[in-house]
Amino acid sequence: MRQSTYLVPTLRDVPSDADIASHRLMLRAGLIRQSAAGVYSFLPIGTKVLRNIEAIVREEMDAKGAQELLMPAIQPAELWQESGRWEAYGSELMRIKDRHNRDFALGPTHEEVVTALLKADVKSYKKLPMNVYQIQAKYRDERRPRFGVLRSREFLMKDAYTFDTSFEGLDKQYEAMYDAYTKIFQRCGLDFRAVVADSGAMGGKDTHEFMVLSDVGEDTIAYSDESDFAANIEIAPVNVQYERADEEQQPLQTVDTPNVKTIEEVASYLQTSEDQLIKSLLFIVDERPVLVLVRGDHEVNDVKVKHVTDGQSVELATEEETKRYIGTTPGFVGPIGVSEEVKVLADHAVEVLVNAVCGANETDKHHKNVNPERDFSGVQYDDLRTIQEGDPSPDGKGTIQFREGIEVGHVFKLGTRYSEALGATFLDENGSDKPMVMGSYGIGVSRTLAAIIEQHHDDQGIIWPASVAPFDVHLICVQTKDDEQRQLAESLYSQLQGAGLDVLLDDRKERPGVKFNDADLLGLPIRITVGKKASEGIVELKVRKSGEMDEIASDECIEVIQERLAHL
């Protein structure tokens, strides 16, 4: 490809609205341009990278026996209503109406559509197991699109779905997809972790996220410093053996705490430590009030609350709801004397507290010397807090550390969640109707591109791994007016292409500095510069990743480039 006619509009200045490296570099290097908030056009060089990632995805998916298909992006509301997700999915679901006033959604995922598809055409166990996938644009109405294509409203995704006759079959498919994803992200040159995660609106129980380690990640990974344990902090179990303090219980007291609401303020005012406080937060779980108690130095984990209550919607109560169910304002809420209408859950750390402090359910008042086993009853104890750095690893090996991560893939064991809701059954060996057992597996292709840049860049620009680079070689003719340089560059261009290498020829009438700066910005694995020694048949080779530079004979270019690429 000739750069003089290639649509690659590089920018010198950093766009003011680009907060992270991948967004800045994708704009500066001419990979994308914004059409609307959270909606981007991919220009030719960005599209080439997407296609290279897609090729890796297809190769690994096909190797596992998956079959590619293409489903519609516009999905009828009836399917989502049958599955129960039309309302449950929330405001991120982009809903539209046609001219006949019928409801549709722009697909964020395709569980409903693919289940209905196989329901119609797969009737017997003889056709199962089956694994189908597609690569397609998806849509989510993000409240606050940001970070370029990392959190956008339209994005490219690979979604796959497996159908089996048994949960044992699902386990095998899940393991195969887990292995395929591991190979995909390794081939993309990513440093990542597969972490235990929450299934969210997808449903199902067992699930892993593939997280690319990055300082700009929107998720936090809890991992052991001595084992391979890793989990999203939303779901990481706390495995701490709490011990009750060896001190005498004191009489319960109610004390004035005027305008003292936060844990920090209460601890300071009453001259006690935060771990002697009971933090009481009221949640509304599926329209039912649930009071959750954790130790003052811990944080409530609402995902764990959702799992413990088997709820669909978990929201922190408003001030009005708090007054209605508890009789006071947030900041003074406590578990003593609450209405039977309110379900009370407490973290295990609360159970062993002695002479603690909690809200008195009266404005400007708190209780002192609170002892859970004595002062309140009917409490369900469970793991309800968010894991912290320094906690023991749940697998008993080492302690927990945190890293930020970018989610690029997610695998789910759906079970019969969708097949039962939509009536997708098969006849087994005995002629009995059984629901298909399903799995769902997604890769954010456009997110993967951005994650690659986050891990592979420097101050000058992108450093593409050879496996996904838009071109193998950036061939630069320093002076296009010099006949010897131009002729050698043209000859090399033809030879390299003939050898199967993908080459970007910078034949522009630009200053050398502009060409070299653009070459570093675009970040192709190998740069070949045809300059002053063209008359001697000598060119300069630079490896973008290492910065290593050599002068080589032009007739050795193909062999040397292929050897260098094989080690990138």
From TrEMBL:
One of its GO terms (cellular component) is cytosol. One of its GO terms (biological process) is prolyl-tRNA aminoacylation. Keywords: Aminoacyl-tRNA synthetase, ATP-binding, Cytoplasm, Ligase, Nucleotide-binding, Protein biosynthesis. The keyword Electron transport does not apply. It comes from the Bacteria. It is found in: Cytoplasm. Belongs to the class-II aminoacyl-tRNA synthetase family. ProS type 1 subfamily. Catalyzes the attachment of proline to tRNA(Pro) in a two-step reaction: proline is first activated by ATP to form Pro-AMP and then transferred to the acceptor end of tRNA(Pro). As ProRS can inadvertently accommodate and process non-cognate amino acids such as alanine and cysteine, to avoid such errors it has two additional distinct editing activities against alanine. One activity is designated as 'pretransfer' editing and involves the tRNA(Pro)-independent hydrolysis of activated Ala-AMP. NCBIfam families: PRK09194.1, proS_fam_II. This is Proline--tRNA ligase. It comes from Texcoconibacillus texcoconensis. The gene is proS.
